[in-house]
Design brief:
By secondary structure, this protein is of the alpha/beta class. The chain folds into four domains: 156 residues, 3-Layer(aba) Sandwich (Molybdenum Cofactor Biosythetic Enzyme, Chain A); 55 residues, Molybdopterin biosynthesis moea protein, domain 2 (Alpha-Beta Complex); 88 residues, Molybdopterin biosynthesis moea protein, domain 3 (Molybdopterin biosynthesis moeA protein, domain 3, Beta Complex); 73 residues, Beta-clip (Beta Barrel). It is built from seven helices and 28 strands. The chain has a six-stranded mixed sheet with strand order 7-4-6-5-9-8, with no helix packed on it. A six-stranded mixed sheet has the order 16-13-17-21-20-18, sandwiched between helices. A hairpin with a 2-residue loop joins strand 24 and strand 25. It is elongated. Bound molecules: adenosine monophosphate and magnesium ion. The site of magnesium ion (MG) has 5 residues, from loops.
Length: 406
């Protein structure tokens, strides 16, 4: 059995980045840039007013005060979307709107609230600093400047930045396609009639949602029955995907044929079994040149092992640099017994009080109890060597979402 970290390292060593594709900027949310974004323009393109007010020559306002105001002649009005027609000379001003180009000669803007205008004359009561309320040409982005590095995830903020440069197409990593196969004679699919001895296939749907969440495209291959012929035929359909994920049939039972079948299909097996709970029987290898994961069938084990192993692999393929969810330290509120020798992932509810994280268990931790996962916003990660962790101990907690975090 190998450790969680060894398994993660071995997996990542087999993953390659997806090729790039061009996307319309508006469709690129959540994707990862595969090349740098370089500006071909200055932003703003000219010195711009940051306020509605008057563009002036700063030196004209020297010594201005309530008692000794300065009077300037307004030579024109510049609206946003217009270029100025006139220069501003000494003793002159131009009325200017936010976003309008500052006329030549002017080197400061006075806010409209701080000026008094009457006809063609504006009166100022304060000295202004040169540069006041002027956004300098190229200060937000300079022509030729590298604005975003490849590898960055595209959030609404990046989309706004890229659009401001006039760029409408971006090069991103393609989404990996992930074939998902459920296994088991006891499974009925959602559109099928369930016989008395069957349960519904839930893993395929949970895994498909996890794939979407990790930036991939799920391809559901249905259910393979617990016989070698059906398994071989359905697993082979995964050859057209970028990843293959099989759920169930990888442990020690008489009808757990997955390992045998993938070996017959020519898998290069990298490991089988990780020192963790839930999720010990976990197979990883490459088949048809694609990474293949054999995840344990218990519904919670399937979700937990996807989170720890498949998600980082998909994120890497999709171009991300940050592959793992944030881990913080939290005060454990329950006393927990565990197996020595296995890293244990418990489903937990993290809350914050007075700036500190606390975590409690979601209830029964059996790996068949999906509600233990539904209530969780974190995994409590307990180290291999311990058998019991007492309430009040600081433990590592992997945050899954901000739900309930208040
Ligand atoms: P296995 O790993 O095949 O031995 O399955 C372990 C447990 O998980 C059994 O109780 C199975 O019925 C259950 N299980 C396996 N696959 C699924 C699935 N796709 N949906 C729901 N439960 C499953
Ligand atoms: Mg099974």
């Amino acid at each position: 059995m190998i450790s969680v970290e060894e398994a993660q390292t071995k997996i990542l060593s087999q993953i390659v980045r997806m090729p790039a594709e061009w996307l319309f900027l508006g469709a690129s949310l959540g994707r990862t840039l595969s090349s740098d974004i370089v500006s071909s323009i200055n932003l703003p393109p000219w010195n711009t007013s940051a306020m509605d007010g008057y563009a002036v020559v700063g030196a004209d306002t020297e010594g201005a005060s309530q008692n000794t105001p300065v009077h300037l002649t307004v030579v024109e009005e510049v609206q946003a979307g217009q270029m100025p027609n006139k220069k501003v000379g000494r003793g002159e001003a131009a009325k200017i709107m936010t976003g309008a180009p500052v006329p030549d000669g002017a080197d400061a803007v006075v806010k409209i609230e701080e000026a008094k205008c009457s006809g063609k004359e504006v009166t100022l009561f304060d000295q202004v600093e040169v540069g006041a309320f002027i956004r300098k040409k190229g200060e937000a982005a300079a022509s030729g400047e590298r604005i975003l590095k490849q590898g960055i995830s595209i959030r609404p903020f990046e989309i706004s930045m890229i659009a401001s440069l006039g760029i409408s197409q971006v090069s991103v990593y393609q989404k990996p396609r992930v074939a998902i196969l459920a296994t088991g004679n006891e499974l009925a699919d959602l559109h099928e009639e369930r016989s008395l001895c069957q349960i519904y296939n839930s893993n395929s749907y949970g895994l498909a949602a996890q794939v979407v969440d990790a930036g991939g495209i799920p391809m559901l291959l249905g259910i393979a029955r617990d016989n070698k012929a059906d398994l071989a035929e359905k697993i082979a359909r995964g050859r057209y995907a970028d990843f293959i994920v099989i759920s169930g049939g990888v442990s020690m039972g008489d009808y757990d044929f997955v390992k045998e079948v993938i070996e017959e299909l020519g898998v290069k097996m990298i490991f089988w079994k990780v020192a963790m709970k839930p999720g010990r029987p976990l197979a990883f290898g490459t088949l048809f040149g694609k990474p293949l994961f054999g995840l344990p069938g218990n519904p919670v084990s399937s979700l937990v092992t996807f989170e720890q192993f498949v998600r980082p692999a998909l994120l890497f393929a999709a171009g991300r640099d940050r592959l793992y969810r944030p881990v913080v330290s939290a005060v454990l509120e329950d006393t927990v017994k565990k197996h020595r020798g296995l890293r244990t992932f418990l489903r937990g509810i993290v809350s914050t009080r007075e700036g500190k994280f606390f975590v409690r268990m979601t209830g029964d931790q059996d790996s068949g109890i999906l509600l233990s996962m539904v209530k969780a916003n974190a995994f409590i990660i307990l180290p291999e060597e311990t058998e019991q962790v007492s309430a009040g101990t600081e433990v590592s907690v992997q945050l899954l979402s901000d739900i309930g975090l208040c």
